[in-house]
């Protein structure tokens, strides 16, 4: 059985790997490689956010009636990260390694704090609240092995 916690935590790690590749390429001033890696990362994060915002969070809110709580906080943090993605993309387009790597530090800190809240609190709440539906909800999202 695939839990929301296991699936989404694994996806966090996959996204982290993609971002690390963009950081490494930017540090080497490999701008085409950094741009490709960053776009892969951004697409993966968009997919992850959409799964949470369009599927998991609404299911949790419908089940619990809790609409202004942890899911609202996560949506606000997602918006903050999306703004940071725009700034990171602009730094890549300008081929500004210092700006990109500085913003990358900011993103890494923000993401670590965000992921910790999801992995240690929210995903367990989702698994508990959604019970048997959890596997069905993540089935379409889970990457093929």
Q: Would you list the SSEs in sequence order as H and E?
A: HHHHH
Helix content: over 70%
Query: Given the C-alpha coordinates, what overall shape results?
Result: elongated
Distance between the termini: 15 Å
Low-confidence stretches: none
| Sheet with the most strands, sense and barrel status | none
* Total strands: 0
Rg (C-alpha, Å): 16 Å
Which structural class matches the secondary elements?
mainly alpha
Number of helices: 5
Q: Provide the residue-averaged pLDDT.
A: 92
What is the beta-strand fraction? Answer: under 5%
Would you write up a description of this structure?
The chain is mainly α and 145 residues long. Helix content is 85%, strand content 0%. The chain is built from 5 helices and no strands. The chain has helices spanning 4-27, 31-64, 70-93, 97-130, 133-139. Helix 1 (4-27) runs antiparallel to helix 4, helix 2 (31-64) packs antiparallel against helix 3 and helix 2 packs parallel to helix 4 (97-130).
In short:
The protein is an all-alpha fold and 145 residues long. The protein contains 5 helices and no strands.
Q: Could you list some keywords that capture this structure?
A:
mainly alpha; 145 residues; 85% helix; single chain; elongated
Helices and strands in order:
Elements: H1 4-27, H2 31-64, H3 70-93, H4 97-130, H5 133-139
Helix pairs in contact: 1-2, 1-4, 2-3, 2-4, 3-4
């Amino acid at each position: 059985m695939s839990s929301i916690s296991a699936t989404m935590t694994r996806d966090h790690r996959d996204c982290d790997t993609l971002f690390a590749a963009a950081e490494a390429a930017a540090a080497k001033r490999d701008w085409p490689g950094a741009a490709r890696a960053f776009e892969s990362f951004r697409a993966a994060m968009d997919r992850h956010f959409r799964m949470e915002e369009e599927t998991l969070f609404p299911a949790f809110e419908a089940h619990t009636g809790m609409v202004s709580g942890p899911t609202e906080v996560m949506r606000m943090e997602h918006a903050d990260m999306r703004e940071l993605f725009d700034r990171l993309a602009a730094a890549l387009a300008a081929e500004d390694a210092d700006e990109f790597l500085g913003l990358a530090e900011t993103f890494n800190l923000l993401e670590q704090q965000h992921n910790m809240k999801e992995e240690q609190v929210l995903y367990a709440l989702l698994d508990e609240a959604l019970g048997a539906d959890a596997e069905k909800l993540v089935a379409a999202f889970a990457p093929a092995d």
